[in-house]
C-alpha cells in the first residue's frame, strides 16, 4: 500500500470516528525545519468536497492548523480560520508527532452552523493522529528500503555484466583475433574481422547499459564517475591494471563524505602507482551501514615506516569523519588499505 493510500484510509476513518463533515491531513509545505515552515499543505482529505482540498495551502497564521503545528497541542475552535471557505464552522485539530517534533496536523471540520466538537473527541482524534504518524513513518521507511533494494539490485546486475559478461565476450574476441591471424583465406580473415568488430560493439553496448544502471540518482552518478575518472587518470600510462568494484547505494553518501572518498582513492592509488611496483591495483567502494574504501595491490608491500608517515592525511580524514584507517602488508604480497567511516 502506498503512502497516499494509507493517508486516505486515515482521514476516512478519522471522519467516521469524530463525526466530522470533512477531515484533512496537512504537512509542512517543503519538509523544511519547523521554524522555516510558512504553510501547511493538504495531502489527504475525506468528505463530500474532498477533491477540492488536494494541494491547498493553509497559512500558519490565524489558522487552527498553524496554531497546533506551532504549539504541538490539540485545539478546538468555532472556525478553522484563514485559508478555508467560510462555509466551514467548528474545527478540531491535533498534531502528528515524529518523536519530539510535530510532523503534521489532522484537522476535523464541521459545516457552518454545526455543533462544536466535544472535549471528549480530542483523545479520539489524538489516537487517530498517532496511528497516522506511525503509518506515514512506516510507509516512508518501506519506500526508502525499496529504493535501497532497487539500487543494490541494479549494482549487482551492473557488476555481473562487468565482471563476467564483458570478460567472456572479450575473451571470445581475443580468440577470434588469434584465429584470424592464422587464417589463410582472405575471405575468412575478412569475416573474422567483422565478427571481432561486432563483439567490440557488443562490449560498448554492455558498457552503456552498465552506465545507465548506475545513472539514476544524481549523487551516485557523480561519485561513481568521479572515482572512476580519478583511478583512470592515475593508472594511465603506468602499465598497471586497475580493477574497480562499487557496491551499495552511492546516492546516500553526503557531499562531504564524497569529497573524502575522492581524496582517499586519489591518495591511495597514487601511492600504489609510485611505490608499490604492482601489476594490479584493486579499488573496492562499498556502501552499507558505512562507507568503506579498500585499496589493495600485488606489489612489494608497504614499508613499515611509511604506514604512519605516508598515510597521515588519510588517517586524519578518517578521524574527522569518525572512522578508521587500517593498512598492512598482505601475507600473499602487496598492501591492503581499508578506510571506513559511518554514514550519518
Automatic annotation (TrEMBL):
Keyword Zinc among record annotations: no
Q: Coiled coil: which residue ranges?
A: 129-156
Q: Which GO terms describe its molecular function?
A: kinase activity
Q: List each copy of the GAF domain by range.
A: 2-144
Q: Does the keyword Transport apply?
A: no
Q: Which UniProt keywords apply?
A: Coiled coil, Kinase, Transferase, Two-component regulatory system
- Output the InterPro entries linked to this UniProt entry: GAF, GAF-like_dom_sf, HATPase_C_sf, HATPase_dom, Sensor_HK_TwoCompSys, Sig_transdc_His_kin_sub3_dim/P
Q: Which domain of life is it from?
A: Bacteria
In Pfam terms, one family for this protein is GAF
Please report the name of this protein according to its UniProt entry: Signal transduction histidine kinase
Species: Amycolatopsis magusensis
